[in-house]
Design brief:
The protein is flat, with a radius of gyration of 21 Å. The chain is built from seven helices and six strands; from the N terminus they run βααβααβααββαβ.
Length: 192
Amino acid sequence: MGFDLYGMNPKIGEVKRPERPTDAVLYDSQDKGPRDEYFKKLEAYEGANPGSYFRRNVWGWRPLWQFACAIAEDILDDQDEQSGGFNDCHEIEAEKAVALADRLVEAIANGQLDAYLELERRELSEIPLRPCPRCTGSGWEPDSSMEEGEDECVTCNGQGHMPAMATYYRFGVEDVQAFEIFCRESGGFEIC
C-alpha cells in the first residue's frame, strides 16, 4: 500500500503528459510494447514535472507526513493532519502547499530535520525486538517436517525475533527534499 499525491495545478514544462492508451492496450494486450512505452513516457513526464505526482509507500509516507505536520502546525489544520494519513483524496490548497515547502526548506537549513531524524533513530533503536510471528520465537520453521533444529524459520532467519513494526516506518533528507519540490511545484495537491 502506498500514497499517491497529485498536483492540482502543477507547473508543466516542455515535457507534456502522454496520452493514456485504452485499458485493453494497457492490461489485456499480449503485446507489452505499447504499455511499456506509455509508462516510460509517463515516468519521463513526472520526472520533468515534479509537481505533477509524488508517491511513497506507507512505510515512507506516514513518518514524512508526521514530520511535515510537526513543523507546520500553524499551516496545516487538524483535518489536513488527519487526512494525510489516509487515501481519501484530501486536498491541500496551493497556498498551504507553498508555505509547507518553505517550512521544509527552513527545517533542512536550520538543522531541525537532522535533530528530528536523530531523535527518531535513538527512539527506534530502543524499541525491543518482538518474537517472530511465524515461529513464535523458536527460530524453527513451524511447517517443516524436519526435526527441530534442522530447518530455520524463513521469516526471522532462525533468530526467533524481529524488529518492532515501528522501525519499518522511515524517511530521510532526500524524501523531504523531493516532497518540498513537489509541494512548491504542485499548485496544491490531493493525497490519495
